[in-house]
Structure formats: structure tokens, C-alpha cells
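Record type: monomer structure entry
Structure origin: computed from sequence
Chain ID: A
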Amino acid sequence: MKKSFIFLFILLFLNILALFPVFYFSYARLEVSFFDVGQGDSIFIETPEGHQVLIDGGPSYSKIIEKLSSEMPSWDKDIDLVVLSHPESDHMTGLLSVLENYRVDNIVWTGIERDGEKFESWKRMVDEEGADVYFAEAEERIVMNDSVLEVIHPEESLKGDFFKDSNDTSVVLRLSYGDSSFLFPGDISSKAEKELGGIDSDILKAPHHGSKYSTSSEFLEKVTPLLAVIQVGKNSYGHPTPEVLTRLDNSGIKVLRNDLDGDIKIVSDGIDYKIITKKNKI
């Protein structure tokens, strides 16, 4: 009887091991959340291995904390990497709150100089955080096991240079995981779009909230996205503009918008995608 029990136990154990790859690949997935933070950008990435990346923090001190709390357990107060695409308030403000409430291990930004109280707070808080700080430059790569973030823009380091308008200094990142790819171009205009290469991606975060001065037809031909996500909220700029929506439609690109769809999460197993919003699950 005892031998039979041991034999059955071994069979059960072997069956569990046989199923392990199924369980692993079911849960080995990349999650990219485009937070609904109003008129601004904030993107949270969690890799299959648990690496956490936050690109921009939106225009609100409080909303970003609410959004992170919905994605991270209450005991987790550590973020592996924070990226500031460019120091405009609709991207930077929420990051000030993140630096106050979370431990950040690594920070990537351009290091440019700007005027303003919030910008001075950003620089001071980055210094006080004690994180490893890197200044973005094209062809730099951040490798997180099977997920890779590649810096596409700026072409060279801008550290210490002064810019009155920082949109075209935006850090442009391309994320790849298996056959899946995402492009995060900040707020660049069509002028900067022309300078980019190696940007073919499945999912595009539409530049500058759908401004008519971005997301040119030439840019879309280079990216060839299946889906464009427009991070936009109530605004007086007319974003997203009819021109951009028409260009996206003419290119046959599916469009999701934070102002209409709320938080947008793209889940990938490296081959296929699942789109999750408050309104639909595809």
C-alpha cells in the first residue's frame, strides 16, 4: 500500500511538471497600461518577470498614485525605472508625487534645462531620491530579461542644454517583447518624426495627444501600427484633432482614447494581444 501511494504521488508530480510550461506561458505576459490621467501622459509597464516601468506621470499629483495603487499591491512601494519623456507639466507633475511616495531605483530623462518651479522641484527630488540617473541618448538599450526598451531619440545627449519648448526633445522609446512592439514618442512634432528610424511597431502611443502637428502620414508609414492609443483628456486645444483622426482612419489603424475608453491595458504573450478597457475586452 505504501509503495502504491508513493508511485501515485510520483505520477501526480510528473503530471504537474508536464503542465508547468502551459501555466508558465499562460502567465508569462507583458502588460502595458495607458493610464487615464486627463490631458497628459502616463504609461505603466510590467514585464513577465515583474519589472515595473513608469513613463511619465500625467498632470495631477494625486491621480497617478491612485492609478499605481490599482496596478501594484499595497505593500509594493518600489518602481524599477521611471522615465520622464520631457519636462512639461502634463508629463512631469505626477512624477513629483511618485518620487515622494515610492522608492525609484533608476531614472531616465534628457537632463535638459527649463524654467519653472516644478522643473526645479523635479531636479531637486531626483537628486534626493538616490536613484541611478541616466541621460537618454539614441541606441541605448534597457534589457529586462526578454523585454527590451530601446532609446530612439534624442540622437545625442541634451544634458545641460536649455529649451523653452521641450516637446521635440522628448525621449522616444521602443519596447519589444517577443514579436510584440510598442512605440512611445512623447510629444514630438512631425519635424522630429522625420528624423526617426527603426520605429516599426504594433502599438503606437500617438504623439502629443493627437495634435495636428504630429502623427504625420509619413510617420505612420514608418511605424505601420495596428493600434494607436491617444492619451488625451478634457482640453481646450481640440485634441485629438480631426486631421489626426482622419490620418489614422485612412491608414486603417484602430484607435483607442483615454477620454472615451478610460484606462487602456494591452496584454501580450509575445505573439498575440488582448486589449482591456472599462468598456470592452478584446
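Annotation 1: The chain is about 30% helix and 25% strand.
Annotation 2: Residues 1-26 have pLDDT under 50 and may be disordered.
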